[in-house]
Structure to design on (184 residues):
């Protein structure tokens, strides 16, 4: 059997996990601290995630409360949130920052659904690239007589099945996120 098969399956799993992480940052109408995961704050000259310099809580379903451990970072956090593509204006009271998530409009839901589809398509492309890399590796093994022609055909069939399974999984994750976006 071809060597290195597990390595490619692990890469596909990682791609799926990264997609789930990307989807967590797409807000679906209710407050979720994961929307702040990708936002970096300039903290003493170093880009730092908000979670690294503040406590984030959800006082109610439509808002997040950010309480920095060092109040001097309030302005930097506010600036980073404004510069992000969240589309939310932070409310700074001098001690904490409150983010109030408005009800999503139909237009915004459609825009977010397009973003979800783009993330899913990028993940599918990554899965297919992993399959291509695997097939290149198996071809090289066949050429070097490390595996037989039959082993190569089996590896090719197995990689295609694995690819199809992971693409179905990505479609399932994307469909779930889209449904979440259109829940009212």
């Amino acid at each position: 059997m071809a060597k290195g098969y597990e390595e490619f399956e692990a890469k596909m799993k990682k791609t799926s996990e990264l997609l789930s992480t990307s989807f967590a940052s797409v807000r679906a109408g209710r407050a979720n601290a994961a929307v702040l995961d990708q936002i970096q704050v300039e903290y003493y000259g170093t880009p730092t995630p908000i979670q690294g310099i503040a406590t984030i809580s959800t006082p109610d379903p439509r808002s997040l409360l950010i309480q920095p451990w060092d109040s001097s970072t309030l302005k930097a956090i506010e600036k980073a949130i404004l510069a992000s593509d969240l589309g939310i204006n932070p409310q700074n009271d001098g001690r904490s920052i409150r983010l109030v998530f408005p009800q999503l409009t139909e237009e915004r839901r459609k825009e977010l659904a397009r973003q979800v589809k783009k993330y899913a398509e990028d993940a599918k492309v990554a899965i297919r690239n992993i399959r291509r890399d695997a097939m290149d590796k198996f071809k090289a093994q066949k050429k070097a007589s490390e595996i037989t022609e039959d082993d190569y055909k089996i590896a090719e069939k197995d990689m295609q099945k694995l690819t199809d399974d992971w693409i179905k999984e990505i479609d399932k994750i994307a469909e779930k996120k889209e449904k979440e976006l259109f829940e009212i």
The chain has a mean pLDDT of 86.
